[in-house]
Design brief:
It is a single chain. It is built from 3 helices and 48 strands. It is mainly beta and 697 residues long. A 5-stranded antiparallel β-sheet has the order 3-4-9-6-7, with no helix packed on it. Strands 13, 14, 15, 16 and 17 form a 5-stranded antiparallel β-sheet that branches. Strands 18, 19, 20, 21 and 22 form a 5-stranded antiparallel β-sheet that branches. A hairpin with a 5-residue loop joins strand 13 and strand 14. It is globular, with a radius of gyration of 27 Å.
Amino acid sequence: MNLNPALLFIPAVAAGLLAAPTAQAQTVLWASKVEAVSSQKAKGKEPFSPEKVLGEPNAQPLGQINNEAWIPAKDGPNEFIEVRFARSVQAQQVTVIENFNPGSVTKIELIDTKGEHHQVYTNTNPGPLPEAFRTLQVKFKPEKYRTIGARVTMNTAKVTGVNQIDAIGVANVDVQIVKQDFKNPASSDVETVQMDSTLKNLGPNINSRYVDTHPVISPDGRTMFFARQGHPGNVGGSRDPQDIWYSKLTSGKNQTWSLARNLGSPPNGPEDPNGLASVSANGQVALLIGVYVDGFMEPKGFSTSRHSPGGWSVPQKVQIDNYRNDDKEHLDGFLATSGKALLMAVERPEGQGGQDIFVSFPKPTPVGEQYDPKKPVQWTKPISLGPTINTPGADFAPFLASDNKTLYFASDGHGGYGKSDIFYSKRLDSTWTHWSTPRNMGPVVNSPDFDAYYTVSAAGDNAYLVSSRNGTDGSKDIFRIALAPAFKPEVVTLVQGKVLDAVTKKPIRALIHYENLITGEEIGVAESSPVDGSYTIVLPAGVQYGYRAEAADYIAENASLDATTSDKYSEKQQDLFLVPFKVGQKVKLNNIFFPQSKYYLQPSSFPELLRLVRILRDYPTVEILIGGHTDNQGDPALNLKLSEDRVNEVKKYLVSKGIDAKRLTTQGFGGTEPIASNEQEETRRFNRRVEFTITKK
């Protein structure tokens, strides 16, 4: 079955909906979070709960009461559900799937990144319809605002019986959605989208007459790790089954790589088949295949190793609840750039058969416990990605792109051109079990021979893979190919910088958190280098982000990035500062936002303020002075009044969350204390700020 490559977000087969092809690139988003609801019959994952609205339509068959759709608990004119999407989009249509007993929807509002509502649909005469179900699709001219959420209001008293909503989605193009049978294509269907390039052998600096396999590219695209089998340069010589090697990009324009070097010991050993599965965003933490015991590797899971000026650390076992792999010869893994998901290709009883791809998630740090970089992360029990990805054959070599959604993997169970082919799929919601139908990457990437281990840099321009075609002296080699638009991951921004003490400017080893400022959801975590404090994070487009460092005895000054309109890969330098937790220290609240010349808080300020609430709760004796500042434009008296009103609004919010007002004093300074030049807007914006000073600890 051939699908238009622009329609990857439309659940054409799994959801029973088909989007008509269009010439322009498009984004269709289904709800990912329930923000508010008027009433509910159940909670959480229970049948009929509000959470059943999330993700692609799945209440099948249509026209019947279904456990996978929401039911309001009351009959009345103001029943509603409000949802958020995973990213923002300049919408021009909204779709509501009324899977049973339709006709009660009276109003649809879109919510922008500032929290403002825009009504796009009104029905003043709700009532029962002759159809058993309805795809309510509203189209409109796109406005300048970007949509981050939607609110659907219903008059359930006007439509007798159970009213159900299965899904809510928005799109940035005019997409005709029609009802279609719920049939999956044959699993052997091969996608015939053609690539726009040919495979290019990386040459003798990377490839040898020995087997060179499993390339891993760092997110910035500047370092490649790979494995060599039986090479004389291995730690144990030619009898050494496999070592990890690496190479540096010396010329991005010509894609020239330095002469590969052995990674050394540790992690390489003289008798073990050592392998590197993935590397962190800053290239300083490696996920290794196997568990190391007394210097020897055992294929019983995964380990991590950290880089320092003295080399790589002794590998430390990754703790995974109920880890099991019944395949004693094969194991693959991949740690997401976000640090929020650990993919593994293992054989387990609950799988489809052979190697299947599973995912584990980090367990949350216990309340009140400080981050300890020496303490290993605990991971949850693996769950299967589901039958859309996994087959009775071998499904392996998972690689999750930096957008945290696009999955490339190898399989001999989906059909294709040869022994194993490389496939492409998109994650459709937050469950990690709903994926778009895997698409074969086509005859340029895949061949009648072995093709696997696909890896892509954050920029998404080039991919690297292993193939036995035209290898050096007939061996397996590593190749590069330019990615066709049909198979590119979503656009991201790569942010790099250092974590520094705000007073001494010395580097600090810290944990970096980054979050969606609209929904408050934490998107990912990363570590800074213990040597120079350097860090790297990768932020998918379409979201307004906040990010901060976290270390014991420090308070973070947060940074932000508005990537809601990003349409191409970019890189940004941003140092992060940590303020010592001492009386007299001043902390800038960089992620507090107000409309221009107004004093009321925008919703994107709430995550920052909630962290301040937690600090004040954790340290109940601390008192602070909240200071407000403006630039020097306009009337000084009005600027002073505006700064006072803004900090009083911040205090009001903190008090509403249970903080004693006696612990909070406020002062407006207007434009009298600039920290940057007021000559140009580029620097003047730094003077518009809210900060607090610790007055008592």
